[in-house]
Each structure stands twice: as structure tokens, then as C-alpha cells.
User: Which sequence fits this backbone?
């Protein structure tokens, strides 16, 4: 059993209380290590360290901060294999597919932040008064609290950390407790790059305590969180007037119109459902297919679903890992049961895998109803609920029953129809003719503001903006004003 440490003020340390918790391997349901169980005092120590480092870091030239992010990216690349190993052990991600994919991605946002910050220009502003010259530029906010989920622990921290530090902020970061070993591996790379002490601090412990302290403490000045809408609501109630960036859940609708080619798209739709065992905010979680092509599409989906294999994540033939924890396992079961009770039919799967760990079978359901939980909430599991439709209104009735709106996709060869659907769907992103998971780190990503999928946009210059105060400077070149 490995013993892990957190990282505060440039030092690896245990929790101040000396408490630990078991880190669980979800593919076996067994512990693989002891994690420090931090509390409010540890969070306060981190906040103190971040504030102490703040002045000197914000004065460090931008070009040097950018070079530091590049150095961290290089080290992350050199540690890809180790990262993939820990992603496999801690999350059960198939080592040769999903774990490798995420480990390869980990450095990408660090490079993007390093590049984009150099060209993140302010403006000069024309104004009515001929004696004034006005310009704007970006300054750091101060100390940013970063709170990350468990599903992509190497990739999602990169959506915040490099953008925060390249803009001159310092950070207190807390990861989901079930993904802390991956966070520690990332932190080791950051430490190895020589980041000055206190600039990024990693505090491990329960979100309700460590995360909450980072949110409420007056020593943090902005909060970036990826997680569930329920947690975002609590943070909103607790954060006072601090700026917040939230990346939350989804319930990705996929709309397949009658002119789409069912055999050509089924593999892509199935991948959008089952990649990462469905534990992605952008997963396809409900599929609406035009009646005219429903039969061949459903048959093709069943065939594609049978290709997804859960099992030992170290095995090369395994393509699907476990759910992260028992709460997710139970939620998936509840959603399937509820859909069936309300009239849906299971075509494939529908049970847990008969092996240790937290596995579900990839599952296809048809004929789910608007009031079913699979339609109204995020399932976060390997479930593909399909429903055929004759009239567009039927699809809207289902979509409108759900308060989430992150990513949708539409399959059609008709440009007019694609455009109309994309404009009308209340999701932050609509992908036309591809899976819901398309995204790159410089593109804006996030939910619609009137639903539960998030607040603000992450990605490239959008994250740089969140990590900054926009400063306006006014020069008077005439006589001082009197009134
Ligand atoms: P979660 O909301 O349970 O936890 C997220 C983080 O918040 C964790 O670090 C947790 O420790 C912390 N936390 C919990 N309670 C807190 C509190 N009271 N105060 C402060 N912090 C607290 O979410 P999760 O189960 O870790 O992640 C799954 C969710 O994340 C899903 O809904 C998924 O869709 C969403 N997600 C969204 C995106 C996106 O980009 N939109 C990406 C990945 C995951």
C-alpha cells in the first residue's frame, strides 16, 4: 500500500491531523493506498502559502510564467506512462486506451495557456473627452480556488491551473478524493519543473470541508469548479461575491434525422455513450432517431454496443472501465430500473458485470419516456437510451423536461435543418455530424446560462479572462477636471 502526501508551500506533507483514508481501486473494489485526509486547517495553511507567494509571482514577468508552463508540459509528456498507470489503478481506466489517451492529453492545456497568455492583449479605447487616453489590460485576481472532479483528473486540472498561474495568480487546488493519486502525480511534475513554493498548493480531503474552506475563506479571490450542479449550488450559496466559473453536468441529447446514414453513424454514437463508461459531462445520454431509420439504427447500435468490453483495465482487449464509486453504480441502476418501470425495454446489458469492482454492462434501452430519470437527469453511466420520433415536437417535449444543457449533436445531411436545430437546442455546444465529445482546449466550452450545466466558459482565452481582472487606466493630458 502506497502512502501519499499533499503539497503545501512547496513541501510534501501529511494532513495536520495525521488522519488518512483508503484510496480504492474501482476495478477491484480494494484499497491501493493511504491518502492524507486534510481538513479546514490544512486548507487554511494552503491559503496562507498562496497569499505569501502572490506578490512575487505576479511580479514574475509573463514570459517567465509562460516558460514555466511549457516546462511543466514537457515534464508531463515525459511522465505519460506513469500517468497512464496511475489513471488505470485509481480510476480503472483501460490502460492501453482511455488511460493512455488522457495521459497524452495532460500537457496540452499547459502549452495552450503558455502560448495564448502572450497574445492576450488589452485595448486602447477611444473616448468622448479629447483630453483623455484610455487603455485596458489584464491583471491577476490573486488566489484562485480550484476544485476538480474525478472523471478526468489529469485533463481537467489543466483547464484551470496553467491559465491561473500564467496570468500571475497563485492557486489552492483540491481534487475529488477518489482521484487524488492522479492529482499528486501531476503535482510531482509541477514541483519537478521548479515552480516557486506556494504558487500551486494541493490539499486533499473531503470537498465539504477542504473545498468549502477554499470557497468561504477571504484569502481566496475566485473559484473555478468542475463537478455536479448540486455542489455548484452549495458553492454559490457560500462564495459570497467571489467570481465563479462552473463546468457542470450534461444529459447530451443526440438527434438523428431521417436523412442520416444509420450504419455509418452508429459506432460514433455508441462511443459517445460508452467512452469512459459514460462518465463524461459530454456523454450522449439520450438518443432521438427519426422513425424512418429507427430500425436499422437500433440494430446497428446493438451490434456496436456488443463490441464494448468491460473487465480488467490492464488487459489490452478491455475497452470499458468501472464506474468510479458505489454511488455512481447505484445511480445507474436506479435510472435503468426507473426507465423500465415507465415502459422502456432493455435490448442489451441492464446488469452489473459479474466480476469484482464497480462495473456496469454497456446497456441499450428503447422507448424511454419524458418523465424517466434517464431523460431528466444525468445518468453518468454506460447507458444508451434510444427513442424514435415522428414529429420534432416529441423531441422537444423530452428535451425540455431536463434542466441540463451542455453538449448536443445532430446528424443530418441537410444544412438548413442542422443549422436550425443547432440554434434552437439549449446546449452550450452543438456538434453537427459527429460524437458529442469533440472539443479542443482553446475552444469555448460550457453550459447554457439558463440551465444547470454551468456558468461561464472554459477554454483558451475564455479561461484567461476568468483568471484576470480587467484594469482600465485613464491618462489625462489636459488640465485636471473641476466641476
Ligand atoms: P461533485 O460535485 O461531487 O464534486 C466535484 C468537486 O467538488 C470534488 O472535488 C468535491 O470534493 C468538491 N466538493 C464537494 N462538495 C463540496 C462543497 N460543499 N464545497 C466545495 N467543494 C465541494 O462531482 P464529481 O462527482 O466529482 O464529478 C462528476 C460531475 O462533474 C458530473 O456531474 C459531471 O458531469 C461533472 N463534470 C463536468 C465537466 C464539464 O466540463 N462540464 C467535466 C467533468 C465532469
Assistant:
Amino acid at each position: 500500500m502506497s502512502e501519499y502526501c499533499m503539497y503545501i508551500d512547496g513541501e510534501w506533507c501529511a494532513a495536520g491531523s495525521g488522519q488518512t483514508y483508503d484510496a480504492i481501486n474501482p476495478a477491484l473494489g480494494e484499497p491501493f493506498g493511504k491518502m492524507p485526509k486534510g481538513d479546514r486547517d490544512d486548507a487554511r495553511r494552503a491559503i496562507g502559502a498562496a497569499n505569501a507567494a502572490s506578490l512575487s509571482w505576479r511580479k514574475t514577468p509573463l514570459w517567465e510564467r509562460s516558460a514555466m508552463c511549457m516546462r511543466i508540459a514537457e515534464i508531463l509528456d515525459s511522465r505519460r506512462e506513469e500517468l497512464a498507470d496511475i489513471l488505470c489503478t485509481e480510476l480503472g481506466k483501460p490502460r492501453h486506451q482511455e488511460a493512455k489517451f488522457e495521459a497524452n492529453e495532460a500537457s496540452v492545456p499547459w502549452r495552450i495557456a503558455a502560448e495564448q497568455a502572450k497574445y492576450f492583449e488589452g485595448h486602447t479605447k477611444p473616448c468622448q473627452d479629447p483630453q483623455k487616453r484610455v487603455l485596458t489590460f489584464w491583471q491577476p485576481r490573486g488566489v484562485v480556488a480550484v476544485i476538480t472532479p474525478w472523471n478526468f483528473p489529469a485533463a481537467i486540472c489543466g483547464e484551470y491551473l496553467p491559465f491561473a498561474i500564467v496570468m500571475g495568480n497563485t492557486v489552492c487546488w483540491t481534487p475529488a478524493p477518489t482521484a487524488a493519486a492522479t492529482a499528486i502525480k501531476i503535482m510531482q511534475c509541477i514541483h519537478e519543473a521548479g515552480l516557486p513554493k506556494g504558487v500551486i498548493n494541493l490539499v486533499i480531503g473531503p470537498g465539504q470541508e477542504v473545498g468549502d474552506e477554499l470557497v468561504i475563506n477571504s484569502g481566496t479571490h475566485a473559484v473555478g469548479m468542475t463537478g455536479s450542479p448540486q455542489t455548484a449550488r452549495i458553492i454559490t450559496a457560500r462564495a459570497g461575491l467571489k467570481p465563479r466559473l462552473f463546468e457542470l453536468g450534461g444529459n447530451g441529447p443526440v438527434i438523428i434525422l431521417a436523412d442520416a446514414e444509420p450504419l455509418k453513424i452508429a459506432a460514433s454514437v455508441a462511443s459517445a455513450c460508452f467512452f469512459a463508461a459514460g462518465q463524461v459531462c459530454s456523454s450522449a445520454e439520450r438518443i432521438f432517431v427519426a422513425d424512418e431509420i429507427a430500425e436499422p439504427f437500433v440494430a446497428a447500435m446493438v451490434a456496436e454496443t456488443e463490441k464494448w468490453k468491460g473487465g480488467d483495465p490492464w488487459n489490452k482487449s478491455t475497452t470499458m472501465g468501472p464506474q468510479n464509486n458505489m454511488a455512481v453504480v447505484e445511480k445507474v441502476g436506479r435510472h435503468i430500473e426507473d426507465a423500465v418501470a415507465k415502459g422502456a425495454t432493455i435490448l442489451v446489458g441492464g446488469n452489473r458485470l459479474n466480476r469484482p469492482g464497480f462495473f456496469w454492462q454497456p446497456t441499450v434501452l428503447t422507448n424511454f419516456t419524458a418523465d424517466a430519470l434517464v431523460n431528466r437527469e444525468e445518468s453518468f453511466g454506460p447507458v444508451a437510451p434510444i427513442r424514435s420520433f415522428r414529429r420534432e415536437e416529441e423531441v422537444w417535449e423530452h428535451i425540455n423536461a431536463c434542466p441540463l444543457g451542455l453538449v448536443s449533436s445532430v446528424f443530418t445531411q441537410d444544412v438548413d435543418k442542422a443549422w436550425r436545430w443547432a440554434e434552437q437546442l439549449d446546449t452550450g455546444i452543438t456538434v453537427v455530424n459527429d460524437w458529442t465529445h469533440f472539443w479542443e482546449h482553446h475552444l469555448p466550452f460550457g453550459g447554457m446560462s439558463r440551465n444547470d450545466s454551468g456558468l461561464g466558459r472554459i477554454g483558451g482565452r475564455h479561461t484567461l479572462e476568468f483568471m484576470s481582472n480587467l484594469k482600465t487606466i485613464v491618462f489625462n493630458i489636459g488640465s485636471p477636471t473641476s466641476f
User: Anything to note?
Assistant: The radius of gyration is 24 Å. The CA atoms of residues 170 and 232 lie 22 Å apart. Residues 147-151, 156, 174-176, 207-208, 211-212, 215, 225-228, 231, 234-235, 247-250, 281, 378, 380, 406, 454 surround nicotinamide-adenine-dinucleotide (CB under 6 Å). DSSP finds 17 helices and 21 strands in the chain.
